[in-house]
């Protein structure tokens, strides 16, 4: 299988750097082909702007969506964007590895998403009508591919638990797992999250390698998060609200009736 790792940490000798190297070695040993987009090492340009569209008419005001569509369909995107799109097409699975910074991904990785996810590629795909609101949330360019987050956090696991002050980790990562990954069609595996990482030592790192190794070995067999599909019959279209009576779904935490973000996960 082909695995793309999109990796965001500025220091190669960091914990994230060690985990990324471990992941590459493990997957390679198991016979997979691995490519790494090391965003800091590549000096990835994080800001989406008019320079991303090589033949844009500069006498007109910038329209990021329309210009993105035009450049994507005419093959006139900046080469770094097109190369990442080619790697995504090549991949059977994509791993996103990053430290949790301000409850989300580092800005350089967000910028990767904003630039690489062009209109016509990751969004604006499929029929848009009163009865079919695009191929998205379970359909789209990445349908059939798997994705997983590998995240390190300074906070304790309890801080990110159901009643933790930071909010549940599944909720915090929802804009990434549901918005950035499920939206264009990925099957999204539960994230691999390491907490309290400032207290890492060699003994714990050895245990972490075992746990991460298991997750990597099971990349193609672990069950994805059971996000509902937009066009799977659970939503009224075009309102795109969950149909009444489906609230019993939960994240498997024993809640009898789901609410909020959990509405979008089947039991
Ligand atoms: P490092 O600092 O490189 O290492 C962490 C520990 O692991 C160190 O003790 C190091 O010695 C050890 N280590 C490294 N490599 C190895 C190895 N090979 N073997 C054994 N031990 C090793 N945290 C939150 O929880 N929520 C937030 O919102 C949040 N926001 C942040 C915002 C910013 C701007 C920053 C800088 C940090 C924030 N943090 C937050 C903390 C952040 O998540 C952690 O600092 C980060 O996850 C640590 O990852 P690292 O790769 O930088 O670790």
UniProtKB/TrEMBL annotation:
Keyword entries, A-Z: Oxidoreductase
Keyword field contains Lipid metabolism: no
Domain of life: Bacteria
GO CC terms, sorted: cytosol
InterPro entries referenced in this protein's UniProt entry, alphabetically: Flavodoxin_fold (IPR003680), Flavoprotein-like_sf (IPR029039), NAD(P)H_dehydrogenase_qn (IPR051545)
GO molecular function, one term: NAD(P)H dehydrogenase (quinone) activity
Flavodoxin-like fold domain boundaries: 1-213
Family (UniProt): Belongs to the NAD(P)H dehydrogenase (quinone) family.
Descriptive protein name: Flavodoxin family protein
Species whose genome carries this gene: Corallococcus llansteffanensis
